[in-house]
Amino acid sequence: MPEPLSPIPSLLKPLKLEQKKKFTNLAVTGGLDRYARRCLEALAKLYGPQSPEGLWLERARADFGQYLALTLAEREALVAETLQKLEAWPALPQAAPPKAEVRQTQSLAPFIPAEKARAFQRTGLKTLRDLLAYTPKWVLHRSLFTPLAQCTGREEPYFILARINGISQTRRGPRETLKVALEDGTGTLIWTWFNRPYLRKELSNGRWVVLHASPEVSRWGKQVVGQADTFEFLSEDDKQVLEKGGLLPLYPTTPTLTQDFWQGLFAKALGPALESLPDTRLEADLGKALGAREAFRALHRPESLEAFEAARHRLAFEEYLVLQAYLMLKKREMSQRRKGRAYVFGGEKILAFRKSIPFELTGAQKKVLKEIREDLAKPYPMNRLLQGDVGSGKTLVAAISFLYAADSGLQSALMAPTEILAQQHFDTFRKLLKPLGLQTVLLTGGLKAKEKRQALEALAAGRAQVAVGTHALLEKDVAFKNLGFVVIDERHKFGVLQRAALEEKGRWPDSLMMTATPFPRALVLTDYGDTDLSILDEFPKGRKPIQTHWRSEAKKEEVYQFVKARVLKGEQVFWVFPVVEESKSFLKSATQMYQYFSQDVFHGFRVGLLHGRMKKEQKQAVMADFAAKKIQILVSTTVVEVGVDVANATVMVVEHAERFGLAQLHQLRGRVGRGSAASTCFLLTSPLMSADALKRVKIMTTTTDGFKLSEFDLKLRGPGEILGLAQSGRREGGLVDLRRDGALVERARETAGRWIEADPRLEAPDHAFLKAALKSRYDFQLASIS
Fold it and tell me: What phi and psi values does residue 707 have, to the nearest 5 degrees?
């Protein structure tokens, strides 16, 4: 049997190709960001998550998760650093030989044709058990399809079965457009693709397509903007299955791994995979005697749509059960640690601070601070998640927590995902804490050698009570005299091991994780189930709601006039673009529009430019000028997404709003509305956009509630990766699906709690499968079940 390719050479070549392609994310089909994360995750498992290599790999994996949001300069630096590290990497440790008796780990290699092996490797599926968990994207029956004539543009997507009946290809500058005519005998639909020339060879007249989309109805007829995860091609045989009333499982495909390939693979491997599977049963908790083998068979070869959903429900429950048990055991182990320190809550500095602030804390802030004090008074370390909408006062809660630590003789650290956010926090904390005699230092990658040396010496000697920084806080030369309190801002942008690396700088420091991206309860229970939750759901007095308006490109003149009127009143404006410079895409760029605004539209006004490629000193100077009202209109990229606080800014304009996610739009909108004046956000969009983009823009105009937006976002695109569960994610039809599984998560959590309370070490025969699953996935993190 041929040895699988090492993740290192598998990643080096695409990284070098990405350099040649000028960091456009085109080195790998599907995106370098996703491919690199898979390879880095595989490497982290090989080296060990607690090794120096494993910690760095986890950081790099998180960075590639943000690759699409990075500037070209940041992409270039990330790719260069990764290449440098991997090319000088120590030899891989030898993996222990697999146990012959464990057939469940049997390799899939014998079932894969040689000519498909390289493409199949990219799926990450290696064993029979992996294949079982690779669930169908959709299971179709003819009753699910809606004729084109009846597709009326509702929010929920339709299943559409249609045939290609004409293809046109046009080019306008760098923008290439494919328009594919689809028909089903009742009506027609235009299926539009932008800048996807490689798709042309896949399209041919007469080919059948399944679409899962909601057509937009315009004066030109019904149309849909193409998206990779919303369609699959059908063969004539597949169509015959549907016409005869059969069920058709469809798996995600590529040009190499076609639907025929997947059907053939399951025909050969499903039987052996089921035979090797322990037949666990959960009838006591689900009310059905459905064994694991029966459930997986119904998942891949269902006899009815009801049988498929029952199987998915049963198997998803088991996945949630394992995850919830892990989180509970982890939380229990943390509660057995003894941090060995006591906090003072009525100390000199906190009392002086309370006298100095000219405003009253909100009720929500008081409640959260009470919860934090109660946690800090406990003998084991705090592990708390603070969810607060944009502008709800999380930074002030962190500052007061730092004072509790300082009055108790402890140091604090705050880690932020970007330099501009770290700088903003540093400026805020220094302003708040310096009058109280506390020293705050900044640690980022852009510091000069002398500044960094002074900051490190102050921390090591204990002269500095607070450190604010980026990933630079994790470097080996960063040492604290007595680190007791840690804040991690925008927690979801950091890996689990990065948080652990910061906490290792002290002795089990108390940890507060903050996020301005509220998560639905089901997602909190899965991603943060080992933490306690605090919510800031109240805004400071005097804040006025932000009015949000959606405008098409054709109405931009209306926005120009509105902005001029507000600037003439003495107010300031953010104008955000998705890219820094012109590229092969049709997107407007910040630099291009800065020139246009300065010389034409807003000639006579003071226009500034801010983007990620600027040097640190340049960024600071621009932001200082904006804060001092020397700049009236700030043209920017998304570097202003978080942390930028200018009370006089009352207008936010987002160009190409269809290109941004809901969380990002909400963050951008939150840069205004911070003063007493009424504020406005304009979302400017291109004429054609996907159905999902249209939904995002519409919901933004109806609410400013981040919690409502998060629920909608979860429903729209799924939860993304949840603690590394391979079968979760954004592709439709996954085994676990938080859009539908809120009640199932609650039930799994209740079951896990009941089992662990009755059998803390999971030694009962009925719990053997759960213990085995925990040991195989999380053994390196759990000591209580070994």
Answer: -70, -40
Q: Which residue type, as a one-letter code, is found at position 386?
A: L
Helix (H, G, I), strand (E, B) or coil at 79: helix
Question: Residue 346, class by beta-carbon neighbours within 10 Å (0-12 exposed, 13-18 middle, 19+ buried)?
Answer: exposed
The span from the CA of 104 to the CA of 129, in Å, is 6
Spatial strand order in the sheet of 411-415: 440-443, 466-469, 411-415, 483-489, 510-515, 383-388, 532-536
pLDDT tens profile 252-304 = 888 889 899 999 999 999 999 898 887 777 655 554 557 888 999 999 999 99
Adjacency order of strands within the sheet including 231-234: 216-218, 221-225, 188-194, 175-183, 158-172, 208-213, 231-234
The type of residue at 742 is G
pTM beyond 0.85: no
Where does the pLDDT of residue 368 fall: very low under 50, low under 70, confident under 90, or very high at 90 and above? very high
Instruction: Give the amino acid at 496.
Output: V
55 touches 497 (CB < 8 A): yes
Cβ atoms of 290 and 308 within 8 Å: the answer is no
Chain centroid offset of residue 442 CA = 27
Alpha-carbon span 80 to 289, nearest angstrom: 54
Cα torsion angle, 688, 693, 699, 705, sign: negative
What's the whole-number mean pLDDT along residues 371-397? 91
Average pLDDT in the chain: 83
Q: Are 510 and 485 in contact (CB under 8 A)?
A: yes
Instruction: Give the Cα separation of 485 and 488 in Å (integer).
Output: 10
Give the pair of three-digit tokens for residue 139.
């299971």
The size of the chain, in residues, is: 786
How far, rounded to the nearest angstrom, does the alpha carbon of residue 314 sit from its chain's CA centroid?
27
β partners of residue 209:
162, 233
Contacts with 28 (C-beta within 8 Å, 6 or more apart), sequence order: 14, 17, 34, 35
C-alpha closest to that of 235 among 264, 215, 212, 214:
264
CA distance 163 to 148: 11
Task: Please determine, for residue 3, whether its predicted confidence score (pLDDT) is greater than 50.
Answer: no
What band does 246 get if pLDDT is binned at 50, 70 and 90? Answer: very high
| Residue 600 pLDDT level (bands cut at 50, 70, 90) | very high
Query: 3-state SS of the chain: helix, strand, coil percent to 5?
Result: 45, 15, 35
Contacts of 655 (CB under 8 A, 6+ apart): 575, 576, 577, 578, 588, 593, 684
For every residue of 700-720, which 3-state class applies, written as one string?
A: HCCCCCHHHHHHHHHHHHCCC
**445-495: pLDDT as tens digits:** 878 889 999 999 999 999 999 999 998 998 888 999 999 999 998 766 776
- Residue 611: CB partners within 8 Å, gap ≥ 6? 71, 580, 590, 591, 636, 637, 639
Q: Which of 268, 280, 279, 270 is nearest to 302 (CA)?
A: 270
Neighbours of 298 (CB within 10 A): 21
